[in-house]
């Protein structure tokens, strides 16, 4: 029987195994490198984590959730540019933090979900401070003071006070604290996406009223004095609004509070407030 020399075959097999292992190692290193380019060790901010002052400065921007349809706080002007009181305040705060503002527009009913998912670092959108919200979120120092108002069509004679909402249709954003006022007075809630839609439903007689923000109402009447609506009642207590953050952003909030305090001290806040309201709306 002819004898075979298996040594060359064994050497070839071993060479192939070494080569395969080498290729696998290269692939693993490539994957790790790709992960590192987007991870915390790359020097870039991790946008899936709770925002901190360090992460915001590392990214070079403050990601800000806002509606973009809520005049005069956050809306688009005639040229299509995003503007408004909250937009100007957030822009100035970002400047004082040494970063650029990045505004991410979101419907009101999804704005807290966006904050929960870390889609943005904070929300500047006249968010009222409530005990319920404080259980889950952190707030900056308040920088807006406003009262809830009851708005009806100009020819409405049935609704004169909040108590008259019983059995009436009221257009409300479902996640707004103002909706609770309408509910507590017996109103039938008709869901809206925000102030503008509530007013549209009201003027088209698809709802009887809306409980909404007094400053927004004043701005609307200033822009459209012939709008066929009127204010018939006002809440006794004022609400305080602030920027809202996820818990864990305390050092970022501290920096934002300093920026807001400095803006009030040097007159920047008053200048912005008078631009939109003709008065200081922090009092």
TrEMBL record:
Gene3D superfamilies: Periplasmic binding protein-like II. SUPFAM superfamilies: Periplasmic binding protein-like II. The keyword Cell inner membrane does not apply. The keyword DNA-binding does not apply. Residues 61-280 form the Solute-binding protein family 3/N-terminal domain. It comes from the Bacteria. Residues 1-20 form the signal peptide. Keywords: Signal. Pfam families: SBP_bac_3. InterPro entries: Solute-binding_3/MltF_N. This is Cystine transport system substrate-binding protein.
């Amino acid at each position: 029987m002819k004898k075979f020399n298996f040594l060359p075959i064994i050497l070839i097999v071993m060479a192939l195994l070494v080569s395969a292992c080498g290729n696998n190692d290269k692939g693993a290193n490539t994957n790790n490198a790709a992960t590192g380019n987007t991870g915390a060790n790359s020097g870039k901010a991790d946008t899936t984590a709770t925002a901190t002052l360090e992460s915001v400065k590392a990214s070079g921007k403050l990601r800000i959730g806002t509606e973009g349809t809520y005049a005069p706080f956050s809306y688009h002007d005639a040229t299509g540019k995003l503007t408004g009181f909250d937009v100007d305040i957030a822009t100035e705060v970002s400047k004082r933090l040494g970063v650029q503002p990045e505004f991410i527009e979101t419907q009101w009913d999804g704005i807290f979900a966006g904050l929960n998912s870390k889609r943005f670092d904070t929300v500047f959108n006249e968010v009222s401070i409530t005990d319920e919200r404080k259980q889950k979120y952190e707030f900056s120092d308040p920088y807006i003071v406003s009262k809830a108002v009851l708005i009806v069509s100009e020819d409405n004679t049935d609704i004169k006070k909040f108590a008259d909402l019983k059995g009436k249709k009221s257009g409300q954003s479902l996640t707004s604290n103002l909706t609770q006022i309408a509910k507590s007075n017996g109103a039938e809630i008709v869901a809206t996406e925000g102030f503008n839609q509530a007013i549209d439903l009201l003027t088209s007689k698809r709802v009887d009223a809306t409980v909404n923000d007094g400053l927004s109402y004043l701005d609307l009447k200033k822009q459209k004095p012939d709008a066929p609506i009127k204010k018939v009642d006002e809440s006794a207590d004022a609400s305080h609004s602030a920027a809202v953050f996820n818990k864990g952003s305390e050092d970022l909030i501290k920096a934002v509070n300093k920026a807001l305090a400095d803006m009030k001290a040097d007159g920047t806040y008053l200048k912005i407030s008078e631009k939109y309201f003709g008065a200081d709306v922090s009092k």
